[in-house]
C-alpha cells in the first residue's frame, strides 16, 4: 500500500484514499457511495483551498519587531557614548540619515497594521433562521468594482430575485450566488420592501466585505462554460445613455469595429460580453442582436431613424467624371456576406483567419475620399513589387492606341460585348467616360489570383457589397488624406482672398467626403490609412500587404465555414 509522506496535503491524502477503496461483497454499496463522495471535484477544490490557507498562515511574512525607529535611536546613542572606529562612524551616519529614518518610520507604520480583510460576525439569529427555512449567508470581499449581478422583482411573489450573474465579476468568482436566488438582506439591511434601484445603490455603495442573506433557488442552474462566439460591433454603444438597460453600471461600452466575445446568450434581450484585448475579466451587458434590431425598427417606425433601405446619397468627390452603376447585382462570385444586407447594422459574427500557403491571396480593396489619390498609391506599390502584387486589368469599349496591348493596359471589347457582360453580371462596377465604357470584371480579379499574386483594386464603396464573399475574403482599406483645419487669414487683395476661400471650400469638401464614406461604409472597413504624403502612405500600405500573408485577422464566420 502506498505510504504518504509527511508533507502530503489533504487533497493528496483524499486522492490516495479514493484509489484504495475496493468494493467487496458485503459493503459494495457503501464503498461505491464513499468513492463517489471522495471523487467530487468540489470536495477536492475545498481541500486545496484549505491547504492554501494553511500555507498562507505558515508563510505569511510577519515583522520581527514593531519599533525599528526606536531601536535605531538606541543604537545611535550607544555609538555616541564613547570613542568610535571608522566603521562605527559610518554606521552612525547611516542611522541618523533622514532617508533611513523615513524608511524605518514607514516600516513601523506598516508593521503595526493588520491588512487582512475583516468579516463582520454572524448575526445573532443566524441559527434560528437556518431552522426556519433554507437561508444562505454569503460573504464577499470586493473592491470598488461592481458586484457583478443584477436583480429583478418577481411579479407573482414580490421577492427580489437575482436576474443574472456577470461572468468574471465578484459574484461569479465567488461561486456562491446564482441566478434565481432570492435576496433578503444586504449587510443586515432588509431589502424586502425596497425598490430594485435602491437595492442596486446599496450594493454598489458597499465596499470591502459585503454580507448577503439569500434563499437559494430551488433548482440552481449549472455553471455554463464560456462560449467562443465572437461578434464585430457595427455600431457604437454607451450604456449610460441607454434607459432600457437593466443596470447601467453593468453595461459594456463599445465602439463600432470592436471585437466582442459573447460569453452568455441565456437572456434573449441582454447578452453578456467582453471586449477582446480588454484587461477587465468581468463581462458586461450588451443589447442582443434581436433586441437591438427591434429597437431600431421601432425608431424607424416613429420617424426618428432613417430607413436603411432608402437610396443613399452618392458619395461626393468620387470619380466625378466616371459615372458608375450603383445597381445591386448578384453574380457568380457567391452569396454576398455584407452585414448591411440585413435591414439594420448590429453585430457580425467573426472568427480568426490566417491565409494558408495553399490558398489564393486575399483581395485588397482600396476606397478613398476626395483628395486621397488612391490610384497613384496603388500603382506605386505595385511598381515596387510587381512579382507579388498586381491590378485587375479593366475592360473598355474605347479604341486601342498604337502603343497599347490587349490584356495589358485594358481588355478591349466591343460595345455589344460590354453590354452583354453587364447583363450577365460580370462586372463589380462599370461606368461611362467620354462616351466610352469602362468596367472591372470578376474574372480579371480571378486571373490575378490564379497567378498567386495579391490583387489590389480601387473601387467605389458601393462595390464592396459584390466583393464581400468567401471567395475573395477582401481586406478593405479606407484611404483619406490628412486635411488641415481651416485658419482665419488676414484680409488682403480680393484675388488672394478668393484663392484662400476656394482652398477652404476644397478642404471642407474633402472632410465631408471622408465623413460621408465613414457613415455609410465604415462598418465594412478593416483599416483606415491616413495619407500624409505619398512616400509614407506607400510604406504603410506595403506593411499592411505583408502582414496579410503572415498574421491572422478577424473575418466573417461565413467566409471560413465549409
From TrEMBL:
Task: Identify the residues that the record assigns to the PDZ domain, covering every copy.
Answer: 137-218
List residues of the SH3 domain.
Answer: 226-296
Q: Where is the L27 domain?
A: 6-60, 61-118
Whether Calcium counts among this entry's keywords is no
Q: Which UniProt keywords apply?
A: SH3 domain
User: Which InterPro entries did the record assign?
Assistant: GK/Ca_channel_bsu, Guanylate_kin-like_dom, Guanylate_kinase_CS, L27_C, L27_dom, L27_dom_sf, MAGUK, P-loop_NTPase
| Superkingdom classification of source | Eukaryota
Where the record annotates domain Guanylate kinase-like, the positions are 361-546
* Family note: Belongs to the MAGUK family.
Name of the protein in its database record: Membrane protein, palmitoylated 3a (MAGUK p55 subfamily member 3)
Species whose genome carries this gene: Monopterus albus
Amino acid at each position: 500500500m502506498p505510504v504518504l509522506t509527511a508533507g502530503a496535503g489533504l487533497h493528496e491524502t483524499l486522492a490516495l484514499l479514493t484509489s484504495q477503496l475496493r468494493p467487496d461483497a458485503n459493503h459494495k454499496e457503501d464503498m461505491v457511495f464513499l468513492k463517489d463522495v471522495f471523487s467530487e471535484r468540489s470536495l477536492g477544490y475545498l481541500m486545496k483551498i484549505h491547504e492554501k490557507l494553511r500555507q498562507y498562515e505558515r508563510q505569511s511574512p510577519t515583522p520581527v519587531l514593531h519599533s525599528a525607529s526606536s531601536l535605531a535611536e538606541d543604537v545611535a546613542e550607544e555609538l555616541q557614548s564613547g570613542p568610535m572606529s571608522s566603521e562605527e562612524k559610518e554606521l552612525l551616519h547611516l542611522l541618523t540619515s533622514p532617508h533611513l529614518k523615513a524608511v524605518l518610520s514607514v516600516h513601523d507604520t506598516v508593521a503595526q497594521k493588520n491588512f487582512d480583510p475583516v468579516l463582520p460576525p454572524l448575526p445573532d439569529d443566524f441559527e434560528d433562521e437556518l431552522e426556519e427555512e433554507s437561508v444562505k449567508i454569503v460573504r464577499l470581499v470586493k473592491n470598488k468594482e461592481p458586484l457583478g449581478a443584477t436583480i429583478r422583482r418577481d411579479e407573482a411573489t414580490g421577492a427580489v430575485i437575482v436576474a443574472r450573474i456577470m461572468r468574471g465579476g465578484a459574484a461569479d468568482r465567488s461561486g456562491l450566488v446564482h441566478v434565481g436566488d432570492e435576496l433578503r438582506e444586504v449587510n443586515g439591511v432588509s431589502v424586502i420592501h425596497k425598490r430594485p434601484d435602491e437595492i442596486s445603490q446599496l450594493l454598489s455603495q458597499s465596499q470591502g466585505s459585503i454580507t448577503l442573506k439569500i434563499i437559494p433557488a430551488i433548482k440552481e442552474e449549472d455553471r455554463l462554460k464560456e462560449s467562443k462566439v465572437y461578434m464585430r460591433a457595427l455600431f457604437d454603444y454607451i450604456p449610460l445613455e441607454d434607459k432600457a438597460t437593466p443596470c447601467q453600471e453593468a453595461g459594456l461600452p463599445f465602439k463600432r469595429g470592436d471585437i466582442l466575445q459573447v460569453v452568455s446568450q441565456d437572456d434573449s434581450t441582454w447578452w453578456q460580453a467582453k471586449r477582446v484585448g480588454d484587461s477587465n475579466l468581468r463581462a458586461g451587458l450588451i443589447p442582443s442582436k434581436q433586441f437591438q434590431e427591434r429597437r431600431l425598427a421601432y425608431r424607424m417606425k416613429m420617424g426618428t431613424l432613417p430607413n436603411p433601405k432608402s437610396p443613399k446619397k452618392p458619395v461626393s468627390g468620387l470619380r466625378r467624371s466616371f459615372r458608375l452603376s450603383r445597381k445591386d447585382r448578384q453574380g457568380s462570385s457567391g452569396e454576398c456576406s455584407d452585414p448591411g444586407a440585413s435591414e439594420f447594422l448590429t453585430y457580425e459574427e467573426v472568427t480568426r483567419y490566417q491565409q494558408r500557403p495553399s490558398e489564393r491571396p486575399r483581395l485588397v480593396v482600396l476606397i478613398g475620399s476626395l483628395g486621397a489619390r488612391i490610384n497613384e498609391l496603388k500603382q506605386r506599390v505595385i511598381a515596387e513589387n510587381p512579382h507579388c502584387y498586381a491590378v485587375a486589368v479593366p475592360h473598355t469599349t474605347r479604341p486601342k492606341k498604337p502603343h497599347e496591348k490587349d490584356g495589358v493596359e485594358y481588355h478591349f471589347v466591343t460595345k455589344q460585348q460590354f453590354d452583354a457582360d453587364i447583363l450577365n453580371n460580370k462586372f463589380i462596377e462599370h461606368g461611362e467616360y467620354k462616351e466610352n465604357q469602362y468596367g472591372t470584371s470578376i474574372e480579371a480579379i480571378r486571373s490575378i489570383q490564379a497567378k498567386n499574386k495579391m490583387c489590389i483594386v480601387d473601387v467605389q464603396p458601393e462595390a464592396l457589397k459584390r466583393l464581400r464573399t468567401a471567395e475573395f475574403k477582401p481586406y478593405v482599406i479606407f484611404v483619406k488624406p490628412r486635411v488641415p483645419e481651416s485658419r482665419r487669414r488676414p484680409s488682403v487683395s480680393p484675388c488672394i482672398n478668393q484663392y484662400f476661400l476656394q482652398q477652404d471650400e476644397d478642404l471642407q469638401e474633402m472632410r465631408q467626403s471622408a465623413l460621408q464614406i465613414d457613415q455609410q461604409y465604415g462598418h465594412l472597413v478593416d483599416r483606415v490609412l491616413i495619407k500624409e504624403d505619398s512616400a509614407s502612405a506607400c510604406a504603410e500600405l506595403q506593411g499592411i500587404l505583408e502582414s496579410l500573408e503572415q498574421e491572422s485577422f478577424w473575418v466573417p464566420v461565413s467566409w471560413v465555414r465549409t
